[in-house]
Amino acid sequence: VQLQASGGGSVQAGGSLRLSCVVSGIMGSITSVGWYRQAPGKEREPVAVIGSNGFTNYRDSVEGRFAISRDNPKNTVYLQMDNLKPEDTAVYYCDADIMSINGARHYWGQGTLVTVSS
Length: 118
Description:
Layout: E1 2-6, E2 9-12, E3 17-24, E4 28-38, E5 45-50, E6 56-58, E7 66-71, E8 76-81, E9 90-100, E10 103-108, E11 112-117
Parallel strand pairs: 2-11
Antiparallel strand pairs: 1-3, 3-8, 4-5, 4-9, 5-6, 7-8, 9-10, 9-11
């Protein structure tokens, strides 16, 4: 299983970016999929998650500015980030929980850097 994240970049405060994460090599079904981020010198923190039924959850600081969505046929999850702030600067990672005949496993993708300047 591979998770390929893309879409990071540099924007000014108030700008927007859309991150994508393609999940490939699946021999099962994706249950939940989401995004984490890690700022320099800080621990990795959850940003948003979306379940197989479409249920979404966000950390308080991004609620109303970020939107997570998934395209199940394409095994792709998106994170639309609007009204970006300098404190959103971080490496963003996608993650997925996948259920197969061997049980449930958790996977991480590589990060994509988001830099927001003031």
